[in-house]
Amino acid sequence: MTTRWLFADQLGPHFLDQVDQPVLLIESRAAFGRRPVHRRRAHLVLSALRHRAAELGDQAQLIQARTYREALAQVKGQLSVCEPTSMAADRFVRELPRVTVEPARGFGTGAEEFRDWVRRRGRRRLLLEDFYREARQRHGILMDGDEPAGGRWNFDQENREPPPSGGMHLPAPKRFAEDEIDEQVRRDLDAWHRAGQVQLTGLDGPREFPVTRAEAMAALRAFVRDRLPVFGPQQDAMLAADPVMAHSLLSPALNLGLLDPVECAHAAEDAYRAGKVPLASAEGFIRQLIGWRDYVWQPYWHFGPGYRRRNALRARTSLPDWFTGLDAEAVDARCLSAALAQVREHGYAHHIVRLMVLGNYALQRGWNPAELTSWFHTNFVDGYDWVMVPNVIGMSQHADAGLMATKPYAGGGAYINRMSDYCHDCRFSPSVRLGPKACPFTAGYWSFLARHEDRFAANPRMARQIQGAHRLGDLPDVVAQEKRRGSAAP
């Protein structure tokens, strides 16, 4: 029987053809030394890989080596591998003489299904909503015959409520006891860091995410029971003291391959059918799984290797040291300080913090999108190349000129004030754009529109904002203020 080589993000049972298939696992120190890596992410990946080897016992061979090539030199016989999730790894395995590359697993839409959808779209935009509807139909998820459950495909409009004033008051997310494998991982990372073999960012702490299939399934069940029922309405909201709110925290387990997105979607649908979860909450979660997650995965390959270098807005400014150093204390703007602290301490922030705080601030200031992509890849526990390239280049920074999103996701302090409690104790005012109390997001937003007026004036989703900028008598002063701010911490 051909040995199945599993990368560290292919650790679930669905990556094997048979339950008793021989398995090769490789722990490459060089893979952790290519770029800085958050301590929490490095720990999670190593722990998951070693736990999988321990689970499989004699069925698996775990080789710890400096490089993948050195490890493969110790292996005899034929190997097969499911298509890796990065272009670099995919090129590498396809050049190897004894390795058969199987189609990718762990996604709801296959490559050929996506190519067929693109062909049928012709020259029209590759819209998420169209992609998502077809995925629902293909998998028969949240469907009543040929129609969507509840008569609607999308409940996004209902899922944009601000946070409740008294907080969410939800059970804490499922936590997992560390074991001797985690202890050894921590010792190894310390030794590698001292030896200069890895450059670690962020802070260490108790492991917060699953590293085994059993832990991942327990986390899924706990989320569906405790937080999915209230997930929908406030999924775009933010609370300074509650970085989790009703979010699932399942993206690390999904991206390690411990969970399959389709099984998670079915679990949400089953809860809805049983009357335990409102339709809007189930639909919002399912849209993230077989909609957005696959919509990000497929364009990563579809747009090719040059996509990561796109920079339509000609953003050239390098990321400042306070940002790359996760120096939350250097920042007065409460929302940005809290976001950096979350990343530093947990390697995590939910999607609106990523998009409308961290990404929005970078977009407004014209930070280099390739550098920002690398920063997200480095510092998030669920950060992989396929995740961050489309999410940052396309969604967050509009560097692809609208291939993934019809408008840039830029917003002022008013949005953050409406969707969070960050502004209450902040020294800046979201309604002020000029002077010492000027919110850096409000001032940055209008300065961003002024810089890119020619590009966005014809965009039907941006025309009203551009017209609003023209009516601001102090706009030249706001632009000059933001130039003076430069890369200084707000």
Describe, in short, the structure shown.
With 490 residues, the chain is α/β, with parallel strands linked by helices.
Major sheet summary line: 5 strands, parallel
Write the H/E string, N to C. Answer: EEHEHEHEHEHHEEHEHHHHHHHHHHHHHH
Rg, rounded, reads 23 Å
Structural shape: globular
The helix content is 40-55%
CATH topology of the largest domain: DNA Cyclobutane Dipyrimidine Photolyase, subunit A, domain 3
Describe, in plain words, how this protein is organized in 3D.
It is a single chain. This protein folds into 3 domains: 3-102, Rossmann fold (3-Layer(aba) Sandwich), CATH 3.40.50.620; 111-173 and 208-300, Serine Threonine Protein Phosphatase 5, Tetratricopeptide repeat, CATH 1.25.40.80; 306-485, DNA Cyclobutane Dipyrimidine Photolyase, subunit A, domain 3, CATH 1.10.579. The protein is built from 21 helices and 9 strands. It has helices at residues 29-33, 39-56, 68-72, 87-94, 111-121, 128-139, 180-194, 213-226, 251-255, 261-273, 279-302, 321-324, 334-346, 351-365, 369-379, 385-396, 413-419, 440-451, 453-456, 463-470, 475-485; strands at residues 3-6, 23-28, 37-38, 60-65, 79-82, 99-102, 143-144, 147-148, 200-201. The chain has a 5-stranded parallel sheet with strand order 4-2-1-5-6. The longest helix has 24 residues, at 279-302. The chain is globular, with a radius of gyration of 23 Å. The mean pLDDT is 93.
